[in-house]
Specification:
GO molecular function: aspartic-type endopeptidase activity
GO biological process, one term: proteolysis
Radius of gyration: 21 Å
CATH architecture of the largest domain: Beta Barrel
Distance between the termini: 23 Å
InterPro entries: Aspartic_peptidase_A1, Aspartic_peptidase_AS, Aspergillopepsin-like_cat_dom, PEPTIDASE_A1, Peptidase_aspartic_dom_sf
Keywords: Aspartyl protease, Hydrolase, Protease
Number of helices: 6
Pfam families: Asp
Largest sheet: 6 strands, antiparallel
Number of strands: 31
Strand content: 35-45%
Shape: globular
Amino acid sequence: MTLHQLVRPEKYQGGKRPSFAAAYARAARRYGIQAGRNVGFVKRNNVVVKVKGRDDKNTEHEVPAESIQNVSMLMHSDVREPCAHLVASLEYVVPVKIGTPGVTLHLDFDTGSSDLWVWSTELARASTLKGHTVYNPSKSHTAKKAPGTWSISYEDGSSASGNVYTDNVTVADITIKNQAVELAEKLSASFLQDNGKDGLLGLAWPQINTVQPEPVATPVENMIKQKLINPPVFTVKLDRGDDAGFYSFGYIDTSVTHHPIKYTSVDKCVFIESFGAYILTEPRVDSSQGFWQVASTSWTLNGQIRARYGNTAVLDTGTTLLLVDDEIVDAIYDSIDGAVYDDQQGGYKYPSNATIPDICFAVGDTLYKVNPKDFAFGDAGNGFTFGGIQSRGDLGFDIFGDIFLKSVYVVFNQGNSTVGLAQRDE
């Protein structure tokens, strides 16, 4: 069994979390959101900026390239204890050993990127950096210098770059030999100020790996090539609060939920006359852009089913919010008494004591309910709460981030390009 427990860094425990602006700006940068009726943050000229308001889409100011801004845990006025369901589930890290004898780093696992990069002794003044474990290839007798360089820019404006080594990488009890490890030589200021993680391990498809002149194999790709996992899958169970959940590799934990895992179909399409084209009606994975992208052609609000022909969604553990089209966003918040769009903060908010409607989104022909505990993102001030479902802007697909993923158990099958989901009730 290769369950790999997630941990929450100390800085994210006890109710601390990124700000709403940081979470929304991250998604805007990653996916290049440029416009939209309800979108509060857009990417213009490779910079994330906040728009002035719902009815004024002139840009207001550049969003600082900070990955984390801590805020306090929200308190309801009618209870004495902190509302645990409002604790952040935005930053998950996993202990990974690199090298021989090896050093253990805490890495962010991200299904929306494909690089394995780490803090390293290649960084200037690496010995003076506090709050991080750094990888030193000279201390590992299995490390070898490899050709190539890498450079990546992330969703919040942060960036990292450097050179490449190969070494043994151990995830849970699986040791990958000669895995490419991208060593950070340069990090933007926001990374240098972030003590939450020592790097990132990408779980998306290999084609978006940034190593030049040739991309390198991802850890999961090498697990499959080296026949280290069977079945060729990894799975994700994201939890709330300090009980962060787990990833597994080569193992499907059927004890997570009593609901069945519904898998994707690789080739089922039908001809939709109004579209004049074949449209996916089952959640076949589209990996052409490097993401885990599946069909999502319906949704429900308080039990009323609404069709979304031809729609798709990206399953992304590296995005916090659940981002969908403006019509859905408006319908959801129109159903919540007192909900309003906040021009100043760039998104919908609602009274903290409001009743949350039943909301489901489809993956394939199966609808999955968003747990009401996860709908609340965080404190918006003056008795209001930011909603975890916001606008995708002008994107042609949805982003199913952690707000959605905490409600399901997900099996990512890279061997046959399918995804399986099961509803969770807790």
